[in-house]
């Protein structure tokens, strides 16, 4: 029971890196000696010290003979930082409790061997599912090459996302739109389409002023990371005049061909063989995985959303439901052509339901 309490604390610390560690995982560490926490830390930013180093620095000489609780297997290789495994051995800790084995083949299981070889007691598996949950994108990319994909939609009570004339601002409430900022801040990239850009001319940025107070505790305004804006633009319809082009952070235009426009340095035209048609969605996500993108948030219209669902590429579906009825002439939540059998429809299960302002937020996962 005591081990669970300290590991739960380490997991809480790990979550504080969810806006800034990508492509690295979120990791927390707690060091305990004689029943007291003598040091703790979390991985705060890629390229900077890992959680174990922060905790060891905080504990100083008290780390000797201690028990270390860490949410992910310590690294054992030189990357942007030295190996945490070596630091734990050098500190002469007595025991290391690890929640989950690192899926990275450079690390996976090797640290267990090195720590045990140094005479340190090692156990792992405690609260493993919780550790994997806060690093779903990292685990999925390491195991499959694909990022974790969240699809966000806003709808009326009758499952409509816009009027027949395309008007969609604003179906959901301001509270719901501010809530979305948290999901954007967590994401390595936001995917949208040229149709959405032409219709709404959105910013697709994380805005500090719109983050909830409890989310601001995770980060600060200066270190807030903007996700890459990935726009599916097969016919080169996005121009330098659209708002996303002048926003901080990178914009990737996924196209079949380059154009002759003069683009700022933060805009990259990426050519996807065969274009970004429905049949190439898997290749598009694989491309993002190769660029170490762990978590993706999709904010797009009914056609693209339906294509992702139809291709079984959605890991998590987030729907904000507003207390409005738009009627049968309006645009539906997503387009799924060719389904005429109830046994063939995509099936989801609810993982969370909660009220956000005047709206209801539904979180679902595929069955």
Automatic annotation (TrEMBL):
Function statement: Converts 2,5-diamino-6-(ribosylamino)-4(3h)-pyrimidinone 5'-phosphate into 5-amino-6-(ribosylamino)-2,4(1h,3h)-pyrimidinedione 5'-phosphate.
Catalytic residues, chain numbering: 52 (proton donor)
GO biological process, one term: riboflavin biosynthetic process
EC number(s) reported in the record: 3.5.4.26, 1.1.1.193
CDD domains documented for this protein: Riboflavin_deaminase-reductase
Name recorded for this polypeptide: Riboflavin biosynthesis protein RibD
Sites where the protein binds Zn(2+): 50, 75, 84
Residues the entry annotates as binding substrate: 168, 184, 204, 207, 299
The protein's annotated pathway: Cofactor biosynthesis; riboflavin biosynthesis; 5-amino-6-(D-ribitylamino)uracil from GTP: step 2/4; Cofactor biosynthesis; riboflavin biosynthesis; 5-amino-6-(D-ribitylamino)uracil from GTP: step 3/4
Protein family per UniProt: In the C-terminal section; belongs to the HTP reductase family.
Cofactor field: Zn(2+)
GO molecular function: 5-amino-6-(5-phosphoribosylamino)uracil reductase activity; diaminohydroxyphosphoribosylaminopyrimidine deaminase activity; NADP binding; zinc ion binding
Ranges of residues in domain CMP/dCMP-type deaminase: 1-111
Superkingdom of the organism of origin: Bacteria
Catalysed conversion reaction: 2,5-diamino-6-hydroxy-4-(5-phosphoribosylamino)-pyrimidine + H2O + H(+) = 5-amino-6-(5-phospho-D-ribosylamino)uracil + NH4(+); 5-amino-6-(5-phospho-D-ribitylamino)uracil + NADP(+) = 5-amino-6-(5-phospho-D-ribosylamino)uracil + NADPH + H(+)
Keywords assigned by UniProt, alphabetized: Hydrolase, Metal-binding, Multifunctional enzyme, NADP, Oxidoreductase, Riboflavin biosynthesis, Zinc
Pfam families, per database record: dCMP_cyt_deam_1, RibD_C
Free-text cofactor note: Binds 1 zinc ion.
Originating species: Candidatus Pantoea edessiphila
Binding sites annotated in the UniProt record for NADP(+): 154, 170, 196, 200, 301-307
């Amino acid at each position: 029971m005591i081990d669970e309490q300290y590991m739960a604390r380490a997991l809480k610390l790990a979550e504080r890196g969810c806006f800034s560690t990508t492509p690295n995982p979120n990791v927390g560490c707690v060091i305990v000696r004689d029943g007291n926490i003598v040091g703790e830390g979390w991985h705060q930013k890629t390229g900077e010290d890992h959680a174990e180093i922060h905790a060891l620095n905080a504990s100083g000489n008290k780390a000797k003979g201690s028990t270390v609780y860490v949410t992910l297997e310590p690294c054992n290789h030189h990357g942007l930082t030295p190996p945490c495994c070596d630091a734990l051995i050098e500190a002469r800790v007595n025991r290391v409790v690890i929640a989950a084995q690192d899926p990275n083949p450079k690390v996976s299981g090797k640290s267990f061997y090195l720590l045990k070889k140094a005479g340190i007691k090692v156990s792992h598996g405690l609260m493993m599912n919780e550790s994997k949950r806060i690093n779903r994108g990292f685990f999925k990319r390491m195991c499959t090459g694909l990022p974790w994909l969240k699809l966000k939609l806003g709808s009326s009570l009758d499952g409509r996302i816009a009027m027949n004339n395309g008007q969609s601002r604003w179906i959901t409430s301001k509270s719901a739109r501010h809530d979305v900022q948290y999901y954007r801040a967590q994401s390595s990239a936001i995917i949208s389409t040229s149709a959405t850009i032409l219709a709404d001319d959105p910013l697709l940025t994380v805005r500090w002023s719109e983050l909830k107070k409890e989310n601001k505790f995770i980060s600060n305004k200066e270190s807030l990371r903007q996700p890459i804006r990935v726009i599916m633009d097969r016919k080169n319809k996005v121009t330098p005049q659209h708002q996303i082009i002048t926003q901080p952070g990178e914009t990737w235009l996924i196209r079949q061909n380059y154009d002759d426009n003069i683009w700022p340095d933060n805009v990259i035209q990426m050519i996807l063989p065969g274009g970004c048609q429905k049949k190439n969605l898997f290749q598009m996500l694989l491309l993002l995985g190769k660029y170490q993108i762990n978590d993706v948030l999709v904010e797009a219209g009914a056609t693209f959303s339906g294509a992702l669902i139809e291709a079984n590429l959605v890991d998590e579906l987030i729907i904000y439901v507003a207390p409005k009825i738009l009627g049968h002439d309006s645009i539906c939540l997503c387009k799924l052509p060719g389904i005429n059998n109830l046994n063939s429809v995509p099936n989801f299960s609810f993982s969370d339901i909660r009220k956000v302002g005047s709206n209801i937020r539904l979180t679902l996962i595929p069955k």
